[in-house]
Amino acid sequence: MGHHLETARRLRQKGYRLTPQRLAVLEVIKAGPGHMTVNEVLECLTAQYPTLTVPTVYRNLQWLAEEGLVAETDLGGGSRVYEYIEGHHHHHLVCVNCRRIVDLPDSFLDPLREAVRKHYGFVATMDHVGLFGLCPDCQEEAQTKSAVAGDALEEGGANGAREA
Questions:
Q1: Strand-strand pairing, 90-95 and 101-105
Q2: Which of 44, 84, 97, 163 has the greatest CB tally within 10 Å of its CB?
Q3: CA dihedral sign, ordered 83, 88, 93, 97
Q4: DSSP string, 51-120
Q5: Mean pLDDT, all residues of the chain
Q6: % pLDDT > 70, the chain
Q7: Which stretch, 98-107, 110-119, 145-154, has highest mean pLDDT?
Q8: Contact at 8 Å (CB) between 40 and 65?
Q9: Which candidate, 139, 129, 123, places its Cα nearest to that of 105?
Q10: Distant-in-sequence, close-in-space partners of 53: CB < 8 Å, separation ≥ 6
C-alpha cells in the first residue's frame, strides 16, 4: 500500500471523514516540491477541482498541521508555507540574500530547548523553525565585495593624499 494511502487509512481509523478534496490536498502537499503556499496547492488542484477555494485549501492544510502531517512556517518570503513532515520533524537555515533553504535536523535544537527549560522553566515547542542568516556562498560574496570596496577606498585615500 502506498504511503499516501497508508496515511489516509490511519486518518480514517481515527474517525476522520476524508473528502475527495481533503485527500487531494494531502496528496499534493505530500508529492509537492517541499514548501508550498496555499495558492500553490490550489493551483495544483484547480484542474481537478475547479470550484475549490483558498479558504478550503487553507482549512485542510491547518487540519493536516493539527494532525502532525504538515508543518506551517514563515521562511521570510512574505507568506506562510506548508510542508509534508510526517515522521520527519526538521527545521531550516534560510539565507536572507539568495533565499537558499537548508534542512536542519530537529536534534540541533535540543540544547536550546534544554537551556530554555533550565533557565526559564519554559517548555518550548519548536515544531518547524527557520533560522535566518547568510549561507557560505553569500558570506564569501560579501567578503569579496568588502575587500574590493576596501581596496577602492585605500586607492582613493592614497590618491587623495598625493593630490594634497
A1: antiparallel
A2: 84
A3: negative
A4: T--HHHHHHHHHHHHHTTSEEEEE-SSSSEEEEE-TT--EEEEEETTT--EEEEEGGGGHHHHHHHHHHH
A5: 83
A6: 86
A7: 110-119
A8: no
A9: 129
A10: 42
pLDDT bin (cut points 50, 70, 90) of residue 50 is: very high
Percent of the chain residues past pLDDT 90, beyond the cut: 34
Instruction: Of 36, 94, 100, give the one whose Cα is nearest residue 65.
Output: 36
Contact in structure between 63 and 11 (CB atoms under 8 Å): no
Angle at 91 between CA 88 and CA 94, to 5 degrees: 140
SS3 46: coil
What CATH number belongs to 1-87?
Answer: 1.10.10.10
Sorting pLDDT into bands at 50, 70 and 90, what band is 160? very low
Q: Report the b/e string of 66-92 with b at 16+ CB within 10 A.
A: eeebbbbbebeeeeebbbbbbeeebbb
Determine the straight-line distance between the first and last CA of the chain, rounded to whole angstroms: 82
Q: Could you state, in order of their start, the residue ranges of all structural domains in the chain? A: 1-87
